[in-house]
Amino acid sequence: MKMSRRVEHLAPYLFVEITKKIAEKKAKGEDVVSFGIGDPDIPTPPHIIDRLCQAAQDPANHRYPETEGLPELRQAIAEWYKRRFDVSLDANKEVLPLIGAKEGIAHIALCFIDPGDTALVPDPAYPVYSAGTRFAGGRPYYLPLVEENSFLPDLDAIPDYILRRTKLLWINYPNNPTGAVADLDFFNKVVKFAQQHNLAVCHDGPYSEVAFDGYQPVSFMQADGAKEIGVEFHSLSKSYNMTGWRIGMVVGNAVMVDALKRVKSNLDSGIPQAIQYAAIEALTSSQECIQEHNNIYQRRRDLVIEMLHNIGLEAQTPKAGLYIWAKVPKGYTSVGFATDLLDKVGVVVTPGVGYGKNGEGYVRLSLTIPDAGLVKGLSRLATWRSSKSGLKIE
Ligand SMILES: Cc1ncc(COP(=O)(O)O)c(C=O)c1O
Fold first, then answer.
1. What is the pLDDT of residue 25?
2. 368-391 pLDDT per residue, tens
3. Is 368 a pocket residue for ligand 1 (Cβ < 6 Å)?
4. What is the mean pLDDT of residues 134-149?
5. What was the pLDDT predicted at 391?
6. Which atom of ligand 1 is least distant from the CA of 39?
């Protein structure tokens, strides 16, 4: 059997390796506390599940769905954008439901990237931007996200020769993994830059609803002219704890949305309709659950930050998102530190380098861990620290 070069050169997906390591430890009877994957532990709110169960009973929802999703869902997405961001969208042309944002993010590369083309991809970043680019035969050009620049890409530093062969620019705020946020000034700058260099922009914004201390993230679609050059990926995964149901959306530029619809109509057969009805319920009913979840995450965020600071690790307090981006102690690599925590105290954190070379020196801790586990994990971090009495952390 001869596999494609694409598959032969494929590195295992970051979390596959971490999940494997946890399973090995658990098989040995060891208790592991995981701050790894960003998968909300809080269940999907009951009103959404009720609608899902009701829709699942209806034989009309047992058949193939349409690629473009139910018109009622597209309308619900457009109305949610209007209410939440004051952005107007044509539900027929500027909205496309997805089988989770990840699916659309991976597939949109096929709409833009021919072999040899370049996509601008942040580093560190959610790994699917570069995976999609590579699957399409393209090359990612990495834009460093560094603390000195508030984890925003320095667009002016991209060489002209790169821009000449670039078709796509990826951005993501609130950011995974750094926890950084972007304001409208930055998004306006991105639009101008894209217009100047004839780039299509993909903004990935699945964490816009997970925010703290009254902060409200903005949408890329609020930027002047955003719809002329770009789209925004979004998801119900993190807003409504619906990771397991697989539903998201892309909105914005009609030509880009249509291109993705054409690709998808050849590759998948849409989102199960019962799940689409659950999504309509989530988007159109009371949004109180979002604040309730954010209160929980905010409390966890504060506990984690306090413990990290107590043990001498540097980490900024994020305004949004599900992650803490913490600096590793002096003398450790991000993998070395993560491995030491797992081996010595059974705590899983994600090595920053897994998100790109500029993630070296950091680990990511996810706040999607039930309170009991969180407290146990934090006390284990303290145990780890006290076992290293000679260690100079900073
Ligand atoms: C930045 C980012 N984009 C997209 C996704 C995927 O979202 P979905 O569950 O809708 O596929 C994630 C999931 O962790 C993410 O962190």
1. 86
2. 999 999 999 999 999 998 887 666
3. no
4. 96
5. 67
6. 14
